[in-house]
Amino acid sequence: MSFLKSSTSFTRFKILDEVKAEIYDNFEDILRKFAIMDIDNTADERAYGWTNFDDMLDLEFSKSSPRKGEFLVFAFRVDTRRVAPAIIKKHVTIALRQEEEKLAELGKKYISKDRKKEIIEQVKLRLRTRTLPIPAVFEVVWDYSQKTLYFASVQRKLIDLFTEYFVRSFDVRIEQILPYSLAQSILGQGCEDKLDELEPTTFNID
């Protein structure tokens, strides 16, 4: 999803804490400190962190500034290495049969439970090293003056991951703005009873 497209889906957050001046002053340094670590040459299953809004490969934020007027813009990149279950099953079967042949030569019949578990992990590790991670980039727009944050995703697990990482990076608590809480902020205190009584309306168009 991208804020640069004609339409997109996004999640909105409000900043709950006062943001320290040094966060704004040292914003690029914080982004670099918590930038994603490349896992192309490892066997890690997943990595995530910040990257440039304009270029997902720019982890130094040197090609363009994250400061756009009164907005701070960057991106949350998640690299995931996936091996298809069918591939894992195939190679585990091959490895277990090879192990059985070795044991047969030694006069043994069965693979121990611990050894079988070890073989499965070895196969998964070997396959992961042969599989490149898939990158996914989700843009972030921080309206600094209005204490509002826009995140270009509506996936629940991704929202939770982003929230946790944002708090860790900037030491600032955020809260997702839901329709109910948005209505509360517009209508003011004491509106909860009226909101709780609302029922959905179906509009029939002939």
Topology:
Elements: E1 11-15, H1 21-25, H2 27-33, E2 46-51, E3 67-68, E4 71-80, H3 85-105, H4 113-129, E5 134-143, E6 148-151, H5 156-170, E7 174-176, H6 179-187, H7 192-197
Antiparallel strand pairs: 1-6, 1-7, 2-4, 3-4, 4-5, 5-6
Helix pairs in contact: 3-4
Tell me what you see in this structure.
There is one protein chain. The chain is an alpha+beta fold and 206 residues long. Helix content is 39%, strand content 19%. The protein has seven helices and seven strands, in the order βααβββααββαβαα. Helix 3 (85-105) crosses helix 4 (113-129). It is elongated. It starts with 10 loop residues before the first strand and ends in a 9-residue tail after the last helix.
Features:
single chain, 7 helices, 7-stranded antiparallel β-sheet, alpha+beta, 206 residues
Measured by DSSP, the beta-strand proportion falls in 15-25%
The percent range for helix content is 25-40%
Question: How many helices does DSSP assign?
Answer: 7
Judged by helices, strands and strand pairing, the structural class is alpha+beta
Output the radius of gyration.
24 Å
Shape field: elongated
Measured between the Cα atoms of the first and last residue, the distance is 34 Å
Point out poorly predicted stretches: none
The total strand number stands at 7
For the sheet with most strands, the description reads: 7 strands, antiparallel
Helix-strand pattern: EHHEEEHHEEHEHH
Round the mean pLDDT to the nearest integer and report it: 89
Compact summary:
This protein is of the alpha+beta class. The protein has helices at residues 21-25, 27-33, 85-105, 113-129, 156-170, 179-187, 192-197; strands at residues 11-15, 46-51, 67-68, 71-80, 134-143, 148-151, 174-176.
